[in-house]
């Protein structure tokens, strides 16, 4: 029986990217029935919210979704749909594999890193107090003179429970995907309580896997330098929310940028697969941007639901089309103004043809 999957086209360039990815996945032999659910700017008027309840219900029911990017309007008070989805469904683990594909312009080759980012707490918990507010002044009075000027204040909550949960996720991912090492990243020499707790929790979990997977700890600043100098020394990286956000972009940069960086947000009850990039609104409707990141997010999704053969088929075809460099979007051409660059849908179709050729 076909596996039901929620498909959220999103807004901006999302619908054209998702259309290309869907066509590729449908041609891969994967047995999927899509349940199309709309969210984002385009449904605001009809539902009064960019994230209507039926979308969440569909993901809860199907437990798996492939999602296009969704714009967060600035200065309207509307909460990011992407953040709301992660919180509503407790998608606590953000998974971002960063792998080199020959043919993608990059300073590095042979990168194969996986970033596992905690999604639910840290400075992204949204507990912030404005300069001059009663709460900020109260915290300042408790700081024993360490906050000596009127300041805006963000709170960084780190729990042992969420830290252990994300580190366990990283080790399980490492085990299931034949990875050799997990590196936990924080800044515990400065934030002794919060990041200290993260490392203690990580060590406790690492102990359970010590016969199978190597474990090490790195300070975030040293990690950034190491990733630039010798990325091949690392494998699975696990870290808190803010450091994870930054490290993910750094690693996406190592493999050639946002056009090729897939991702997933995974919880106990559901998983939402989406590219790292946003809705690139200036290219909306132009059939121009690169569908690779969304297609590779689909590959992650297929692996997650056990459609391994279909996932392998797509990944091989994507790699081959990129290596050939002929039917690729502008961002994958040596010169971004190359008139031979193809559009989003043409690159998707080239991947389908290549799947058929490879067999
Ligand atoms: P963006 O990723 O949308 O675009 C930044 C630039 O990256 C683009 O102008 C383009 O040059 C390039 N780019 C992005 N995707 C590409 C692709 N597939 N192919 C080729 N080039 C690509 O980032 P932004 O402009 O900061 O964000 C636009 C909107 O998207 C914002 O509202 C933001 O909140 C939202 N956003 C959504 C998600 C999500 O849905 N998960 C993630 C990030 C940002």
Defining key terms:
about 350 residues; alpha/beta; two-stranded antiparallel sheet; globular; binds nicotinamide-adenine-dinucleotide
Describe this protein's structure.
The structure is a single chain. The chain is an alpha/beta fold and 359 residues long. 41% of the residues lie in helices and 15% in strands. The chain has helices at 14-27, 44-47, 53-62, 81-88, 134-142, 160-176, 194-208, 220-229, 241-254, 292-304, 308-324, 344-358; strands spanning 3-8, 32-36, 64-67, 93-99, 112-118, 128-129, 153-154, 181-186, 214-219, 236-239, 264-266, 271-273. The strands form two sheets. Strands 2-1-3-12-11-4-5-10-8-9 form a ten-stranded mixed β-sheet, sandwiched between helices. The radius of gyration is 21 Å and the shape is globular. The chain binds nicotinamide-adenine-dinucleotide. Residues 69-72, 82, 258-259, 274, 277-282, 289-290, 293, 331 line the site of nicotinamide-adenine-dinucleotide.
**Helicity, in percent?**
40-55%
| Overall residue-averaged pLDDT value | 95
- Bound ligands, each once: nicotinamide-adenine-dinucleotide
Order of helices and strands: EHEHHEHEEEHEHEHEHEHEEHHH
Please state the structural category. alpha/beta
Low-confidence stretches: none
How many helix segments? 12
